[in-house]
Amino acid sequence: MAGGAQSGMVERRGWSLWLTHAGLILGVMVIAFPIWLAFVASTVTQPEIVRPPMPVLPGDQFFENYRKALVAGVNAPVAKMLMNSAVMALGIALGKIAISLLSAFAIVYFRFPGRKAFFWLIFLTLMLPVEVRIVPTYEVVAGFGMLNSHAGLILPLIASATATFLFRQFFMTVPDELVEAARVDGARPMRFFLDILVPMSRTNIAALFVILFIYGWNQYLWPLLITTDPQMNTIVMGIKQMFPSGDDIADWPVIMATSILAMLPPVLVVIFMQKLFIRGLVESEK
Amino acid sequence: MEKRVTFKGWLLPLLLVAPQVAVTAVFFFYPAGQAVWQSLFIPDPFGLKSQFVGLGNFEFLLGDPYYRASFVTTAIFSSLVTVVSMGVALVLAVLADRLIKGSGTYRTLLIWPYAVAPAVAGVLWLFMFNTRVGVVAWYLGQLGYDWNHVLNGGEAMGLVVVASAWGRISYNFLFFLAGLQAIPRSVIEAAAIDGARFWTRFWTIVFPLLSPTTFFLLVVNIVYAFFETFGVIHTITSGGPQQATTILVYKVFADGFVGQDLGSSAAQSVILLVVVGVLTVVQFRFIERRVHY
Predict the structure, then answer these.
(1) A:B CB pairs within 8 Å
(2) Torsion over CA of A106, A111, A112 and A117, rounded to 10 degrees?
């Protein structure tokens, strides 16, 4: 803007630079505000919340509220729900990566009957969210007796081929010389797969793992349908179950402590594995 | 695209694809087929047998004012979520792109809400606007504005839009910033030498060069607003008041599981399948173009 045109063209100097920082800091604050408020609410007492306005700085009930949530919760201990979420998120991430690596290897490195058909089946599953076919999928899972089970939480959500598609794209870029060398050395296909292809894909695997972990952890509709037993609830869907159905006032400090606990694992993953996260995000949307 | 060099044999590859074929067949294709099949029937109230009605369920849906209202609600909701989240993200990305140092720090500070589940975001915003304890609702009350999204459909819509757009800003910011940083500095500096001010440069050079990113985000955000915002709606409004926030996905759930109207719910699933299909085609078309860009 003003001033920029003379000195250093598009580089920002002086007040223009400060204005840019001010705008960004304002943005960060507005975006972080709901989470700050939730954190404060998780450290104060119920009476402090039900008499608005609530405090804007944390109170001294941090340990009390989190202990209460983790050990007792409302319907089920939050520690148990965290466990269920971890099993679900890891199951989806690892399960999907495993079956996708195998099938991508098959369609890229072999010519077999039905390969074309298989390829099209993969294409069809891209971008079809579970939300669209909930009723029949529920019936299938119920038919297998998998309601209120970890398998029931995991399997329907790994039934899509996005990851297969990604690994196929990556395998296509692996130089042919490696296969030739492996074949000259008399290596069997599975040796080549385990000793060369999988180690070469480790960055892609890790990036995909980050994305799938967040995806699995944050599922809501599916666990809501199939886990009627509070002991099987995942934390993300369990929060809503903590609200009383009638006119009673919700136990806000415990609910907010649970909300913070529910967002902590995926948020930490994004912050500490930022490079992998961004890579995974960009690649899975290509 | 094919590999020149491959391994021999057909038994091993079939075994390798078997797990994926099994899982996809049982949990994807069979249910999707069932959705199409069930959409042609009306089950009797006891669930003992069902009557074939052909396209009757679809005819009924398209004539049903509630379903048509849900379509309109979905259109308004997803447009607002897309515009709000992309608009805010673009402003922040343009600001961050102006920095020579420090844009990485802001990126870290801005992207982590992506990891907050829509359902959790719903609870956070519900807490702020709760009619009894919500701090924002309370301050609005002090200013003389009586906030009540439980009764007021417009306020309910506003709240679910903001809660849905909030976490999405991170995602859009990330892609916009990457898009902006990919624009060659020399182009912008050349325009600056020609005397073009910031806004002129933005609208005549930066924004057009950013259009592949913008189109891509448009499709992705619409898909997000259609399908992944269920958690926000369910936690904040449960589709109310008077169906003011009942988007299509929420209606599939409400009719199928709460109302037990399986035929109608299945028909709605099929209509959504078509919507997703169209969006997918649009996206693939566009991505093809982007590759040749």
Answers:
(1) 304
(2) 80
Q: Say what the pLDDT of residue B292 is.
A: 35
Which residues face B42 on adjacent strands? B51
- If pLDDT is split at 50, 70 and 90, which confidence band does A7 have? very low
Determine the Cα angle at B232 with ends B227 and B234, to 5°: 95
User: 3-class SS at A110?
Assistant: strand
CATH number of B191's domain: 1.10.3720.10
Per-residue confidence band for B291, with pLDDT thresholds at 50, 70 and 90: very low
Of B210 and B198, the structure prediction assigns the larger pLDDT to B210
Facing residues of B51 across strands?
B42
For chain A, say whether B109 makes contact (Cβ under 8 Å). Answer: yes
Tokens read off for A251: 């136990």
CA distance B25 to A233: 27
Asked if the structure places residue B9 within a domain, the reply is no
Average pLDDT, chain A: 86
Name the nearest CA neighbour of B70 among B205, B211, B267: B267
Residue A257 contacts B, CB cutoff 8 Å: no
Question: Does residue B41 have a pLDDT over 50?
Answer: yes
Q: Do residues B174 and A278 touch, judged by C-beta distance below 8 A?
A: yes
Instruction: Write down the pLDDT at residue B93.
Output: 94
Q: Indicate the DSSP class of residue B41.
A: E
Reported as a single tens digit per residue, the pLDDT across B219-240 is 889 888 988 899 999 999 988 7
Whether residue A270 and residue B114 make contact (CB cut-off 8 A), yes or no, is yes
Residues facing residue B7 across a β-bridge: A110
State the nearest Cα–Cα gap between A236 and chain B, in angstroms.
6
Q: Do B17 and A103 touch (CB under 8 A)?
A: yes
A249 in contact with B, Cβ within 8 Å: yes
Tokens of A53: 């306005």
On whether residue B152 sits in a domain, the answer given is yes
> Is B5 inside a domain boundary?
no
Place of tokens 């069997």: A188
User: Which range of residues forms the domain containing residue B240?
Assistant: 57-291
Is residue B23 within 8 A of residue A158, CB to CB? The reply is yes
d(CA A139, CA B47): 13
Residue B3 inside a domain? The answer is no
Query: What is the predicted ipTM?
Result: 0.88
Is A27 within 8 Å of chain B by CB?
Answer: yes
The number of folded domains in chain B is: 1
